[in-house]
Predict the 3D structure of the following.
Amino acid sequence: PSWRRRAWAVLGLLVAASGWMAWQALGLQFNYDFEQFFPADHPETTFYREFRETFGSDNDFLIVGFEGEALTSGFLAEIDAQIEALEALPGAELVQSPTRLELPVRDPLSGMLFQRPLLAWDNDSTLTKDLDRLRQRDDIMGTFVSPSGRAVALTLEHRDGLSKAGCDSLAAAVAEWEARLHETKSSILDIHVSGRAVAQAYYVGVMEREVAWFVSVGIVLLVAFLWFAFRTVWGILVPLTVVLMSGLWTLGIMVATGKAVDVMTVVLPTILFVVGISDVVHVLTRYYDERRSDATHEEAMRRSFREVGLATFLTSLTTALGFLTLLTSSIGPVHDFGVYAAVGVGVAYVLAFTLLPSVMVLAPPPVVSKQGSGVFWNGALHRALRWTLRNKAALAIAWVGIAGAMTFLGSNLRVDNKLIEDLREDDPFRKQFAFFEREFAGVRPFELSVTLPDLVESPASLRALDALESHLKSDYGVGAIVGPATAVRMAHRGWMGDR
């Protein structure tokens, strides 16, 4: 009776704590901020932030691409009619469209300055001449007009540092605008949108779906494993309850401490399933073995927790310490992943030795078959051990060879910063990026800071910058360069009457 009272008390405390953890977990947030991966104390990170404060953010914009059969006056008129709708989107500040851009041009004869439309799209004949003229302009072709002559891009600048809620609102409004435009019959064949706001909303959605997918698959695999191992409903429900509560507690602790799920911690529930189930399986396997040896329910419980407790504690401790070594990382998400993974391992161990014995004391003892899967595994493992002892020399040589092969292959491991390319080729978001890579100069900006010994506007500096821009184009295939040399060249063109 005293053991049952204690079990009820422990179970009540665990249920209350689980309720609080579940309430906390309801506020779980998903975070898509890859700047968190920048080492906080690294000089390159300091330079990046100082550069952004000086020149502004290079990431607070959306690119809206319109695809048609050809650039006709009717096609451009339909695009121009959408500018007001884009400017009305939440957070939008400025929309730059080739249909409304004007260039300052000087008349060489009179010397007067006037604003010349970038594209005179009143009729197709003047439009064709303007398109031929724009093919010589590096600042336009590949940025606002595609070299293929089938697409036009608008740049929508939104507020700097738009929050997650702001990005979600803007992305949702863009999706609604796209849906309305697709319903109308027009010469616009397709619409493509890319940028930080829509990328953040998409990746957060991917993380939410993947968490649900990982948890679902993990539960199915655990149920299959537990059924194969214990062959009883009791042997499935009790370990599964411990594992699920371990995951719930860890998520609750994350929310309580202000941590959101990111691309690192999105796999944490799956890891906790694997780690958490090991403690329970060790205890229950020993319990079932004792029951098969004709021990009573109480005797089997005492022996299993006494004999397995220290081993599982050391296993959990070393696992947690392994995760805590990530605290040495200067990258925030990696650091946090190590902390919460170690916390999850500790939670799983605590629940395995509080919830599990409480349930085993209060629940009716399971029916244990004398010929369960444990008998099969014991025999199979004994046979495997005997085979290993007979062939230990050959196995040692084989493992040395395997280790050498793995060392060679591991030395060829490549490190990259791919993110979009990791999505499936048929992923709709990757297709958006592929469109801008194919028709324009892409959507991922690259900014280069150059420190010069002389003033930027000096002829020597401009010649050096012009050589650098030419090098980037010829050797790296960089498109749509905007720099001091390009700016001076285009200003000179305007001064010479757009020639």
